[in-house]
Description:
By secondary structure, chain A is an alpha+beta fold. Chain A has helices spanning 59-70, 76-79, 89-92, 126-135, 149-169, 199-210, 222-240, 262-269, 329-332, 337-342, 382-385, 421-430; strands at residues 5-6, 10-11, 99-100, 106-114, 140-146, 174-182, 188-193, 247-251, 276-282, 323-324, 327-328, 349-352, 364-365, 392-393, 410-416, 433-437, 441-450, 453-458, 463-467, 472-480, 495-502, 519-525, 535-542, 549-556, 590-593, 596-601. Chain B has 2 domains: 2-80; 84-156, no CATH class.
Amino acid sequence: MSGSHHGAHGHTHGDHAHDHPHEHGHAHGHPHTHEATPVEGGVLGEAVDLTVPDAELSPAALSRRGVLRGAGLLGAGLSAAGAVGAASPAAAVGRAGGDRRGAEYRWLAGDHHIHTQYSPDAMYRVGDQVRAAHQYGLDWMVITDHGGETHARIGVEKTNPDIRAARRSNPDVLVFQGLEWNIPSAEHGTVFVAPGPNEVSVLQQFEQGYDGSVRGASSSSPANEALAVAGLTFLAQQVRDGRTPDALMLANHPARNGVDSPHEIRGWRDAPGRIAIGMEGAPGHQAAGIPVDALGPGSARGYYGNSPSANSFAGYPLESYRTWGGFDWMTSTVGGLWDSLLAEGLPWWVTANSDSHSVYGDWSVNPTGNDRTATGPDGRVFEVDGLYSDPVYGGGVQTGRGDFWPGFYSRTHVGVPRAGYRQVMAAMRDGRVWVDHGGLVDAVDVRVRAVTATSRESTLGGSLRVRQGDDVEVTITVALASGPNWATFRPELARVDLVLGQVTGAVADRDVFTTPSTRVVQSFDTTGVRAQGGTASFTYTVRDVGGPFYVRFRGTDGKRSQVGIYGAAVDPQGPALDVEGDADPWEDLWFYTNPVFVVPEGRPRGRR
Amino acid sequence: MDHAAASVAAVAGLPSGSLVGSSLVLASSGSPQHLGLVVLAPEPLPAEVATAVAAAAGAEAGGAWVAARAAAGTVDRVAVFPGREDLVGVLAARDLLALSAVEALVGLGGLAVPPDAVVDTRGHVRPRLADGRLVLDVQPSRGGRWVPFEPPVQHACCSAH
């Protein structure tokens, strides 16, 4: 197309990013393959050997040491376990340096993203969702109705007695109150607090002060980005002041509309108090891609079917707007955004949730059809009363919906020393979390230890301190599904992949979303495990550790895969792009674990 | 932005062969990130068209930057292009290319689009200009068909705002 161009003028859009679905603009990026660098050689060398004073380091090594210090990976950072503030593996975990060998955890299944009749686009009573979660095996859950004017004014307050009642009638389920925050300048996020006398007032004050919708601050701008960080800072202050025992934030469906830029995610992570701890590795709405000819809604899995808007981050490639094996592109891409965060040596964890609004195959409907101004059978008007009338029988099975009940398909497993609200939150902050779809496996246990010092070990979310030059064993034990899932078939795990990446420290470009060293280093065939009794352990040894690194696992039923976005050398059998209108969630199951960090320091053993 | 493009395209006198679309304008001092209207025409615009463009575009900063990118052959999203009215229903890929100014189909995430691919246009085709070529991003769909990456209707995240 040659010729002159004319009139290329800008046009500004208002604050309501999501209200203008037909306005777009996108940049396109092509993935490129990069060579993985083996970690065994150790790239950081003397930089991590603290017995060598700074003055004796080469300029390059001194620079690397500075990077590691900045990331909290060296020296004081590691001994400051439990310190508040700095985001580092050391500060992140309760037991930096490793647990005593054999520490046992109870794994509690949960879901931090669930809606009720207090959301303008949902319908169930709080009690309905809690009953379902209990029925489908969840131990904890978070009620997260949408932030907004009505919710901030009245909904958040009126939800609380319902939650308290549900706690009493379902004593086996920990029911947290939270909200789905419209993050200023960005997507949605779960925010929740530990139960206490101020749980409503803290949430309400937060929502009124910092919700993007309440404040008209949804569009992308530096001022709105700052408001998001201010909101997290507010929550940290509430914890510090003892107004609430704890508060956490997780980014929901982060890649769906391309509006959570990498620098915003890093900004939330680095906000004071480590309130923001992670993101949905897999979004909810996992039934949305069931094909129409299988009596499904025939939409995109996770409702990930949109294209870029004026508020999207220009650097994201188009494939980031879709799910891959049911997971968000930030998590599913080996060497992608999640790995680029982990390669900084900083904690950022993934979860999997239902985002349950209205359930595929259920029979009930919202009597007002989600009309916020309509009067329901019992006289309720959403905009006036803050909630819809209770669901009524809909006259037939509802097949146009994209969600599952909590616990039915997506589970976030959290390892706690004992059950309790604060224990669940502490374990989530520690990253002792793995997730699965469709009941793929019963249990996953990951342990990392130095071969010559096996009395200490680290598990998910932990940081194992070893000596430089140590050999490190990474062991995963998987227990296959012993019985049927909620689709009433027993899934079969086909393969487990070990992903390993070097920790390279803080990034100069806060918008980077790739990291070159992370790749799948080993795949374990699990098809013979059933015949061996259903449980098996697999070990990978990292020889002669020279620099900090992390490991994480994923597993699959092996039914759908394609070469990873960064090529076969990085991920030969990654999750496949989900097909819009043809994504049966039960025929494509994965689990993902959070990482374990390994940090070598000091002189090698046996050498002086 | 489709409305702005349509308002320009509706003016008699828009030179045949013109492209009307939009590009993302990154935030700069005093101006938030936004979409910029782009008109690429093979000859100077008649006064009435230029007036319509100015009316549709507003007066935000970033126009020069968008214009420079467009001149270099990059427009993020093109709503008006030769042959667009013929891109309806289900089409063989070769027919889609023959009927319109779209020059190539690009598979999402590096997927290869076979030459005998069948594309369900869903009545909504928005290609982009890349290196001076009009290309359409497509993704796999039901029954082995392909559909454009951009859906006709975006899924609203919730009705709260």
